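thread: overnight batch results

M.L. [08:02]
morning all. the overnight job finished for the chain we discussed friday. pasting input first so we're all looking at the same thing
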Amino acid sequence: MPKVIGAVLLISIYSALTFYLGWGVKQWLVAMGWFRFPVLFWIVLYMVAFSIIIGRLHESLRVFSVISNYWMFIFEYGLLLCLVAQFIILLTPFKNVQIIGSIAVAILFLLSIIGSYLAYSPVVRHLEITVDKQDSDLNTLRAVVASDFHLGVLSHKRHLQRFVSLANEAQPDIVLLAGDIVDDDPKWFVQEGMADVMKQLTSTYGTYGILGNHEYYGKKIPEFIKEMENANVKMLLDETILIEDAFILTGQEDRTNKERKPLEVLKPSANLPWLVMNHTPDDLNTPSQMGVDLHMSGHTHKGQLWPNQYITARVFELDYGYKLKEQMHTLVSSGYGFWGPPMRIGSRSELWVVDITFNSM
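M.L. [08:03]
and the structure it wrote out:
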């Protein structure tokens, strides 16, 4: 019963905010002399607002799923711009709804262009770290680290091809994919033949991945793992492996899996460099206390759209970038792809090239 009440309350608030945004748009359309068919206007608005639900009803309604992604951007920035416009009209001498509304629409359009560019034009970020270990004969290791591809309808095959090209240019020793590789359902990965693109990744020790929360949302993990095998990606499901007797790699299940193993169970016995991938950076204390040398995560997207990063910064100890926690090097990526709208404001699609130097003790 409390869940039902919570859902009803959430839908009511969302519907009220949608109405406020629609009311603001209507005021501008009326001022411009463009407002026609009010009933149709409100029907279309609420169909778009609830397109995320409509798109899940049947495969033939897939277009609504695409619409819902763009709606997330319009809803967030539309509300912000609507509020600003209302404050200007109420608190300043400038009352021209026609001009103020037109400026707000122009800003929204400009933000969508900027956001699309930041989402689809990934950058390569570099990090150099030093790890002290006794037993390793390895002097250096170059890792390409990326997360949150959300491969699907909008984070598509061409976007993946850009990643493969950038990763191969770095000439890595190992490629590490830190979860949310597909956007829920792997069917788009399969239908677009993305495995053939992923196969093009080249490195000394291979490509390794872990599950993120969205792979669990899709509920097709066996099918996804099979596709990753076809793409020459070794998925680590609560596994610790020794690579070339030189370093150790652990891949944790995402916290969405309530039955995942604790890191203590996955801790290696050998005193070799220990790298850990855990999609959600919700606990950095445990790995730092257990002697992890490099801990890699994603999930946060750095908020993806401003000002959401202020929320992720409060939720996570490290929501983006690099931090040395005691002796553990920690990296959280904002992700190579995007969730929802194919846009980024205040963040950018990225992959990391991490150069590790091993010092003998």
